[in-house]
């Protein structure tokens, strides 16, 4: 199987936003070196907190301030676009932007405005369609992560039976992970049949409802895949509540995911390195502000398969904690 890669993201924005913005924070570290603004998909989930920590660490190393913002949830595209516009208006050294699905259509026009203002942009977490303005994209090999989860589930189940998926959206990273999972099974384990795919919208309650419905219709599932932490947690909780033997695999970590993994309710997860993603995003922005663009526009880093067997390894602990 091809080498599975993954990378980056980060989130933030400028201070002093309009009323539509959410909890912007700024970290010190500059001595008049300027400021970088990051606008993430959301502002408080554990994944984005890790991105923020990495971004702020890079800011301290490079002598710039880093502002961080994002909507409350990952389904507020209009609000995120307003935050991006505010960041452009403030003219920082550069901007990092992780586009929500609902911001994909409106963001290219704002990329043009950033270019007109002389503000370089680095996209992170999710590629942005329809614009060649960003100097780089720090993004995961999301399709590869889905394939990696599928490969592990084949080993866990013996490659036969029914499986289902709850995705955290219908486009972007969710679609890539979903499709990577399905395509791997179709090619390598045709006897492992995907019988249902639902969209949990990266919402815990909706993901739980979807998991309940799928398990009610298919109590004989041998495997269940969640494309993000919310969907994976919902699946694991419902499988445990019904005392089923269904193997649960997912993508992304959070304290609740790790707890369920330790309890044996999740068999394994494909984990990104959000700290490293945030750090790389800021490094690229600062370089771009000096006219130093990367030789390759697509920047990636490896994902890690985490189980109870390697959870305590130092390298894994740095990623999940």
TrEMBL record:
<dbReference type="GO" id="GO:0030313">
    <property type="term" value="C:cell envelope"/>
</dbReference>
<feature type="domain" description="Periplasmic binding protein">
    <location>
        <begin position="36"/>
        <end position="292"/>
    </location>
</feature>
<protein>
    <submittedName>
        <fullName>D-allose-binding periplasmic protein</fullName>
    </submittedName>
</protein>
<keyword id="KW-0732">Signal</keyword>
<dbReference type="InterPro" id="IPR028082">
    <property type="entry name" value="Peripla_BP_I"/>
</dbReference>
<dbReference type="GO" id="GO:0030246">
    <property type="term" value="F:carbohydrate binding"/>
</dbReference>
<dbReference type="InterPro" id="IPR025997">
    <property type="entry name" value="SBP_2_dom"/>
</dbReference>
<feature type="signal peptide">
    <location>
        <begin position="1"/>
        <end position="19"/>
    </location>
</feature>
<comment type="similarity">
    <text>Belongs to the bacterial solute-binding protein 2 family.</text>
</comment>
<dbReference type="Pfam" id="PF13407">
    <property type="entry name" value="Peripla_BP_4"/>
</dbReference>
